[in-house]
Amino acid sequence: MQQYDVIHSFLHQSALSHPEKIALIQKEEKVSYEELAERAEQISQWLLHHDLQPGERVAILTDDACEYVAAYFGILAAGGIAIGLNTQTSNHALSSVLADSGSCIVLSQQKFQKYASVIMAQASVRHFETTIRSLWEHGIRSEPKPLPRIHSEDIAQIIYTSGTTGAPKGVMLSHRNLAANTQSTVGYLGLTERDTIMAVLPFFYSYGNSVLLTHIAAGGTLVVNQSFLYPNVILEQMAAEAVTGFSGVPSSFAILLNRSSVREYSFPKLRYLTQAGAPMSPALAANLSAVFPEVKIFIMYGQTEAGPRLSFLEPERVVDKAGSIGKAIPGVTLTVCRPDGSEVEVGELGEIVATGDNIMAGYWQQPEETATVLKKGKLWTGDLARVDQDGFLFIESRKSDMIKSGSHRIGPKEIEDAIMEFSSIHEVAVVGHKDDILGEKIVAFLVVKEGCDASEKELLRHCRRNLPSFKVPHTIIFENELPKTATGKIQKTELKK
């Protein structure tokens, strides 16, 4: 693919190269690249005729993928900064993001009219449009306005972090950040216009945003269904549309393996799966390989602050480097450092530090928070890892998730991976809980697979066989479901409460 520094060029170029190619499939609706580009252009003109100034923030509140994608590219072309709003929102969450971002226009679906009073109560909001489709169906009848000139360093998007470890922060990503990450990901995944992705991740989420941008840049097709309530419906769509790829978080794959009829389907065109969003246990990766033996599985790691991709494990190494997040993607440098910035030795625990054109410009209106993670142009990720003798990275924990029990600092991932090897476990999350004697005790929250049994005694025996004694959970709690964000990430902060 050609190299571009501004994001909306991806859609423009794909529309020029293959205008009739289907870009987006949502239920019965199929939209070509030419149609999608025209819709985005209509939205750009509507924004310019409503006096959008370069750098002003425009929020998108819709779960209609066709609306979202057209609005997203339309905002960027008009010089605005796009803010995708979580559709599983509340009055408080919505007002908080709108107030923090200072959004001046909100583009929405009619179903979200119920938030009109909350949205219009924001001092910065001067227009709330509740029918995005009308912007391209009716169009602007007056003379088109010239599009502003946009530079690669201009902020394209603010993505609010999902808040699994605290209050959400607005991550500022420039056109260059997103373009660099998109082009690198297209390259190592080998994406082309022949690829069709099953897009189940919401586009307001950084991983979903990456899926969107990479496939538009490559000229591929997105089959969108962002509801995972009925996984067999997803599987039927994958088979019907002959998808070549599927991207998910660990919970997506756990649901497919444990709560769907995936073993009864055939996907002859499926060539790759990508996983990110949270660590995947080696046991889950092995089960996935067994169900999809001919499919390449890319274990990936990243952060919203990196646009989002930082590393990937080559499919050929999934077995011999089980549990690893691989090595840096092209264009990114990763080092594991001590607190003083010096590089660790092989096997020594340190923090992953990243550099590259994909690293964010900073947190929106939070210079002090920015300074804690961006130091001399390097992103200190907060993820603790070790490097093996071959240069492969193995994450042990988030700094904020480390459990301080007795004299030990314990990363929960090793415990979670060990528990996931117990055949009847669907999901697990391990957290520390305040304890007067130990400082923190180890608590494991478990969900058992449907139709299976597991007792606390069996699981503790399994843990004692597979873990050092100081890493064996002190408490095991069985749950029907674990609390998750809208993007499928387990919310450990909720479990700690």
Compute the number of helices.
15
Mean pLDDT: 93
CATH class of one domain: Alpha Beta
Q: What gross morphology would you assign? A: globular
The CATH topology of one domain, please? Rossmann fold
Major sheet strand order: 2-1-10-9-11-12-13-14-15
Percent in helix: 25-40%
Low-confidence stretches: none
**Can you count the beta strands?**
26
Per CATH, the architecture of one domain is: 3-Layer(aba) Sandwich
In angstroms, what separates the terminal alpha carbons?
48 Å
Structural class of the secondary structure composition? Answer: alpha/beta
Largest sheet: 9 strands, mixed
Describe this entry's structure for a reader.
The chain has a nine-stranded mixed beta sheet, with helices on both faces. Strands 16, 17, 19, 20 and 21 form a five-stranded antiparallel beta sheet that branches. The model has no long low-confidence stretch (mean pLDDT 93). Among the domains are: 8-174, 3-Layer(aba) Sandwich (Rossmann fold), CATH 3.40.50; 402-496, GMP Synthetase, Chain A, domain 3 (2-Layer Sandwich). It has 497 residues and is α/β, with parallel strands linked by helices. The radius of gyration is 23 Å and the shape is globular.
